[in-house]
Specification:
mainly beta, Jelly Rolls, six-stranded antiparallel sheet, five-stranded antiparallel sheet, 11 strands, about 0% helix, globular
């Protein structure tokens, strides 16, 4: 005599994910604000090149920006990112940190080496911008600041805040 037994197994799988760039951060502790649908924070992308820009909080016109890239001039000559034609626009707030030693600067945003937008920034006057980056493979943000020629964390600080790429 042969006995046959049918066994059914049930498995429950729970999948959780963390937003990009928040591994090891407890929910609710994130310092960045939620991104609009289709938005990717520029701070979440890996920069190209060796220049050491800093990530962290900055203050422009007494307003605190938690999600900021600080460019210490002349320590950083430009910020470069590979976009690979994935985005249509870049929105950002840009200006000089309140603790900066320069009253003004010029900034150019490049797409594949060509100027997409060039403008002046002044201390206490951050600018909110939208830049067309359609078809751009390589994005560059280049400051032209007048300061003495040594790298000084206490010197001129250009701030790129709340920078988001949109599809």
């Amino acid at each position: 005599m042969t006995a046959t037994e049918t066994v059914r197994a049930t498995a429950t799988v729970t999948i959780t994910s963390s937003p990009v760039g928040t591994a090891g951060v407890e929910p609710g502790d994130e310092k960045t604000r939620p991104r609009p649908s289709g938005g990717v924070a520029l701070t979440d992308l890996t920069r190209l090149g060796p220049d050491p820009a800093r990530l962290g909080p900055a203050t422009m016109a007494t307003k605190q920006y938690e999600d900021a890239i600080l460019i210490d001039h002349p320590c950083v000559s430009s910020l470069d990112y590979s976009l690979n034609e994935r985005y249509k626009t870049l929105t950002l707030t840009i200006g000089l940190d309140d603790a900066s030693t320069a009253p003004s600067a010029k900034v150019t945003i490049y797409g594949d080496g060509g100027s997409r937008k060039s403008f002046a920034v002044e201390i206490n006057r951050p600018r909110q911008l939208t830049v067309d980056v359609s078809g751009v493979v390589r994005l560059g943000i280049q400051p032209e600041l007048s300061a003495d020629g040594f790298c000084d964390d206490e010197g001129v600080h250009l701030v790129v805040a709340d920078a988001v790429l949109h599809t």
